Amino acid sequence: MGIDSTNASSGENTHPERAKIKSTAKGTITMWAMAILIITSILSLRGLPSEAKFGVQSIFYYIFAAVVFLLPFSLVCAELASTYTKSGGLYRWVSEAFGPRWGWTAMFLEWMTIIIWFPTVLMFGAASLAYIFWPESFDQQLASNKIYTLVIAFILYWGATFNTFRGTRSANRLSTYGGLFGTIIPTVILIVLGIVYFASGKTIELSDESFFPDFGNLSTIVLAASIFLFYGGMEIQAVHINDMKNPARDFPKAIFLAIAVIVIGYALGTLVIGIVIPTENIDLLQALLVAYNKLWDSFGLSWLGNIMAAFIMFGVLGQVSALVNGPSVGVMAVAQSGYLPRSLQSVNKNGVNQNILYISGAVVSLLSLVIIVLPTVESAYQIMSQLATIIYLVMVLIIYGAFIRLRRTEPYKKRGFRVPGGKVGEWTVCSIGIFGALAALLLSFLPPSQISTGNPIVYVGILLVGSAIFIGLPLIVYAYRKPSWRNPNAHFDPFDWQIEGREPSQVSKWASGYEPDEDESEKGQAKAIANHAKGKH
Hints:
Layout: H1 16-19, H2 31-42, H3 48-52, H4 57-83, H5 90-98, H6 100-130, H7 136-143, H8 146-164, H9 169-199, H10 227-230, H11 234-237, H12 247-276, H13 287-298, H14 303-324, H15 326-336, H16 354-368, H17 370-373, H18 377-409, H19 422-443, H20 456-479, H21 496-500, H22 518-533
């Protein structure tokens, strides 16, 4: 899933633009390098079992989600990232369009998406750890045990958090090796084993069904909505477009190449699971591990299944280590512009914002308790995945809105990359993208028919209440902000509308290609501080 890489940061730096993956010099990222960057940040093994329940239809869903979500959202994020290159990322994009209230809300939703995502990957990590042992019957019982899963989730998360307090250099190294040995190599092995298994004429469990789903029965396609979260994270990766020599020419090529590889990788990996495990026996947490066991066992090498579980567990450790400090980067940008308390603006001697990490840890721990509330570990995993998808898609819709408004309020601002096709291209891309996000958002509230989620009223209620809390909380925090939160010694580049002295909704009068100089930016920051003291945005 793309969120596995979202906000991967180098927490030893307090500046948001440097705290993400370090940017290289202008013109040093080629089309091929950009494609590889996108592929490695999005392709993941963890979500394959949920789509394997659809069999051949999963290919349709992967292609559909790529067309209506990954492609349009990538193009929109690329234009925004190449236009608003100062620190802040999506917080800056949305604040330039709608003001800091909605910029903070979008940033908070991304933060919460990662927070909600954590329990799901921690559950998967607990299952992977269980499958390192022998025999498989013991593995399955242990991986399904609620107390075991909860304890391992706490150990993994808080262990990674306390390790991050020491700085993130070792965490970044673990993330790099975890991505290689815990995702890329296992993915290649899974696909190769599946091809050999299929070619050798062994028993195929994949059902013979239509390529197209039954759209008349929405509860059967709910799990497909999670693909949108698999493809998430382009709002972070798009920043690298500023390091391409010719983004207008090369980025579209890179994204099309990346999409082709991602769709093929996901589709083949999903089909391999469906080939060796009957649909009714696919467990969202354990099916990938069971598939490795069955594949290796068919070649008389059953012990290698346990080794693969260790590899995947290592990959989970890498993901958790990389992302524990990630959310603090964007939240720091909000805090430094004066919209969060001073206590959330400080870092320790290693450049890590411990207070934000404590808040993240408390929320992750609280959300992990859903493992105990719901009937099975699998159902807890599912509801957390759906809640993360809902929160993420709301943020996506806000970004689309920001893109549309900024095309109107700052039409002459220099853009390193433009969505191709002029106004027709703009409206085509946005219409397709908004349609896809809305459809997946609405589907995410329905209980899936393929797994037991307990009482449907409780299931939907958790999603509705959880969504309302996570969307409403940043608006409440903003409403009760205090002038004292603004630290005059903290530097955050003012927004264009602050420099120009207009409202975000008003059209800029700057000439084509105009960029404010340093003096104008300093005056804009002084105005922002003064307005903040008066309680204005």
